[in-house]
Amino acid sequence: MRVRRLTAIWAAKIVSTACRLSGRQGVTFAGKVALKLDPKILSDLASQVREKIFVVCGTNGKTTTNNLLCSAIESDGKKLVCNHTGSNMLAGVAAAFVLAAKNTGKLDADYACIEIDEASTLRIFPHFKPDFMVLTNLFRDQLDRYGEIDTTMDILKRAMQMAPEMTVIVNGDDALSAYLAMESGNPYKTYGITEQVFQEQNDNEIREGRFCKRCGAKLEYEFYHYSQIGKYHCPSCGFTRPEPDFNASNIDMSDGLQFDVDGRHIAASYRGFYNIYNILAAYSAGRTAGMELAGFERVLSDFNPQNGRMEHFQIDGTDIILNLAKNPAGFNQNISAVMEDEKDKDIIIVINDNAQDGTDISWLWDVDFDRFADQSIRSITVSGIRCQDMRLRMKYVDIPSELIADVKSALEARIKDGCKNLYVLVNYTALFSTRSLLKQMEK
After folding, report:
1. Global confidence as pTM
2. Do 400 and 394 touch, CB atoms closer than 8 A?
3. Which residues, 6 or more positions from 277, have their beta carbon under 8 angstroms from its beta carbon?
4. N or C: which end of the chain has fewer CB within 10 A?
5. What are the percentages of helix, strand and coil residues in the chain, rounded to 5?
6. What is the pLDDT of residues 331-342, one digit of tens each?
7. Which residues are catalytic?
8. Angle subtended at Cα 345 by Cα 343 and Cα 348, rounded to the nearest 5 degrees
């Protein structure tokens, strides 16, 4: 068995290196090779983690939350395994452990922080039982892949039952996630924002889970933060938002993001209200596991979002922010983050319909693109495989857009003649290729 494990590790490392040298990511392929050569390798390596294993699940925010948690744990002087790239299905998770292992077959790790695709939990949990699950939120996402939210909730509930001692750290402001944690039978801790942050409520925003999962009655909200996230209760059965164990208060977004939690003041330089939840989730997970997180503030000041999550580039005098937008709730929060920037700006939207994106792109009609009808938006360029659909969507809100199907050409055009402040919003399969283009152009 030892020979088999070593062969799998060496082969995966060789594959990963070859892919990287050829300009491809190659993480998933390396994991597939390792599992083919040694089907038990993930179980064997996970069992070598000395302390605890975290997994991060949820529709939006997984990668940022997971990477923040990894950085926070490292700031406490611990060694860990982390799938930083966001490859979150079985092969990607296996690759994280295999590529972190030494050539001797040993894993030197105190913790593992692993982002997991919700639909993949039932395939991954037989290999190891996590100690903690961070559940960020549950929104409608890729209907042709996930189905309705009830399907995702059922998958996660079955996964939780496979690890009954696993503590769930859940966003209590999301009625769907909170209900799932409460009904799972697992121990759980909650995080949330009790104060009302936005005085104006967008009545047109798509809100999932408006009905109580316990009795079916319509939930009543004191206020919304966004989508179905907010302060809610059921007037029929008494199901209500739990009082958070970790509550963010004194929210200030005038200069980056600032809030108080657990008697500490937290500050981060990046934008996007949703990032308060990502930061709060990572902090809550670390504290629930008993960590001091003494360097958490420093982690936030040094943290540079990667892999297309508010990632910054500077090319020929143009400031560029790349961000993933793959479902209605996520795209609406992307729009909010863009509109927080009051400077003039250009926007490129790249939409693909490959298998990993979900071939059904009808979700675009649930995004509030009319919010781009603002004088600060100097231009909107649509690109990618489904650029014609995106242009049609913009036409329906009477916002002109330029179609440049080739992403590289679109980037070059806006860098050349734009206002030097560019936002690039992409869905899933456009992310890696667009990021690669930007990194090449930045050199």
Report:
1. 0.90
2. yes
3. 61, 136, 137, 171, 173, 191, 193, 229
4. C
5. 40, 20, 40
6. 999 999 999 999
7. 360
8. 155
